[in-house]
Design a protein that fits this description.
alpha/beta; 8-stranded mixed β-sheet; two-stranded parallel sheet; Polyketide_Oxido-like; NAD(P)H-binding protein; NAD(P)-bd_dom_sf; NAD(P)-bd_dom
Amino acid sequence: MNIVVFGAGGRAGRQAVAEARRRGHQVTAVVRDPARHGDLTDARTVAGDVTDAHGVAHVAAGHDAALSAAVDLSVPPYDFFTTSARALATGLAQAGVRRLVVVGIASVLPGASGVPLMDEPGFPSEYRPLSLGHAAGLDELRARDLDWAYVAPAGDFDHDGTRSGRYRIADHADPTSRITHADFALALLDEIDTPRHHRAVVGVREQSPTTP
């Protein structure tokens, strides 16, 4: 397949590119400044802005699916995630790309109580603006005619762990859960290769060798 990856310069994006290439896919890696990402040698690297619908349509043309791991922490989260969701939905439709997989955040997943993790007692207030931004972007996707999957770690990323080659779908958010970016990328690419979740939010957690 031909896959376009927005936000390919970040940790999640890089691992998604690596996993896609490992599976034999052709990848277009979209970053803001290709000159800063000369190490993305196993993909075609192009400049692009995920908040610009026309630009999204241009770089996505001719691809079979799209993946977005893009984030811009210099912009208020609500503004970035709503604008990027609208631009992706509009631009991908113009390019004829129907499938989109988005890297999400655990706090929008239901917690153990059934309400979103960000609404449970004790959720850190400093993370609430980012969580609300993600939630607003998710609402934008829900309002669009696009086959999307919003895939989030059940808790957070294990930045120092190694690839195990395993993961499992999470029943709910778990702040203690950790998964490596490489294992998380397996779930992202599985949703492109053999989509199981359509217009749905998916939590992903680590799977130990003893976990069924």
